[in-house]
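Example 3.
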Amino acid sequence: MKYIDEFRDGDLARRLGAAIVREAEPGKRYSFMEFCGGHTHAIARYGVTDLLPPNVRMIHGPGCPVCVLPIGRVDMAIEIAQRPGVILATYGDTMRVPASGRLSLLKAKAQGADVRMVYSTQDAIRLAEQHPDREVVMFAIGFETTTPPTALAIKEAEAKALGNFFVFCNHVLTPSAIAHILESPEVRELGTVPIDGFVGPAHVSTIIGSRPYEFFAEEYQKPVVIAGFEPLDVMQAILMLVRQVNDGRCEVENEFTRAVTREGNARAQALVAEVFELRRAFEWRGLGEVPYSALRIKEQYAAFDAERHYALADRKVADHKACECGAILRGVKQPADCKLFGTACTPENPLGSCMVSSEGACAAHYTYGRFRDMKPRAAAGGAAT
Amino acid sequence: MDTVRVLAIPLCGHLAVTRNTDFGNALIHCTLEFRGDPDMCLALPVRVVELKDGDRAVVDLGGVRKEVSLALVEGVAVDDYVILHVGYALTRLDPAEAERTLATFAAAGLAEPAGA
């Protein structure tokens, strides 16, 4: 298909790989974090790591909306779904996220809760129109890409005077999470997570533009290259990051110019600003409480806010003791470092959120990378890190 | 040419698409993008084939037609490519920039032959 196939060309990928090998200086270390789960997925699926020299290392970031949703928020969604008369509309990926008491939305549905998977917020609006006697709640999650569609749904509900449509808002913000990672002791003091640059989000950047990353390049002296989600995009971005490190530059570069501008999508930004405001803090799985990292519905649209309507209180629930999702989301550990990986925790029966979503680091590694690990491990013996 | 056909539309309403390739009946299993995973960033470039009332449009995903919303983008015309995500076009794709990026790949890769 156009704009897909040509960005997956195997020959070009090998040539780009050769260019990275040629330009990465052997004595130097290059650790780059790909923030987005979409990039994590592409790197695993197309075997990008195999084309990189050993001193160029990719670290998975927390940019997977399902992965960073803490158990407490999923518990709250289940509690809403179990109320009599409620239809909970949700994106498909959240269905299998493990919650407290061995529940998930899928299991709650099996027990009789009316949970409906929707493709779009428009489907949730339609449900509310079709069932005027029921309360329809959209379980809204995601980064800056899914937020404008939620804002549009709230505006549409207002225009149509839908009194039975509500949004359980869990939208989070990419720049706050990047700042949090850069401020974390692992990156700043301990050095356990060395980050020499970022592969910046693709579709999030179509909305927010490339400008928000300029702060990270200047303030934290980290190069950022915004990249599309196809494998050649990722490889070109890695090459651009290698060049920035070699030149001692810390700039925001844009590889995804076919979709991303410096300003982003002004219409979407205005919509979000109209309907949502910042939360003082929000809990992320793995990162903990991150200040000003999420959105809530403004007072003006309070009538559509499920948290206000049901008077829901935040709750904190600890992750499964042996689950390493938290450390993996911070870049401290790799999926294979987790004892549960591939044994108790699989995509069919996930214990942690990183195994649920296909862009989660564990699911991507389980699907595309888990056999790759075996050879080098056996061959390298104790030498491997 | 690959032909693409819809095998099933699961409960979640995501399109599950399978490619029937030239290699006999070998079926390359439905790509993740088509499976939807709508809360994720795995959005797709799709071609607009028809504009409808109320910011709506019909798009073509490799042979599969779907009605989506154009409420977040301005000035989209038939035959434009947009990036589709959870039923909404997020942005228009710039064909000239796409060509430029492909030329950059080729330039970076051709400095020396692969494997040199």
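The CA atoms of residues 95 and 232 of chain A lie 32 Å apart. Chain A has a mean pLDDT of 92.
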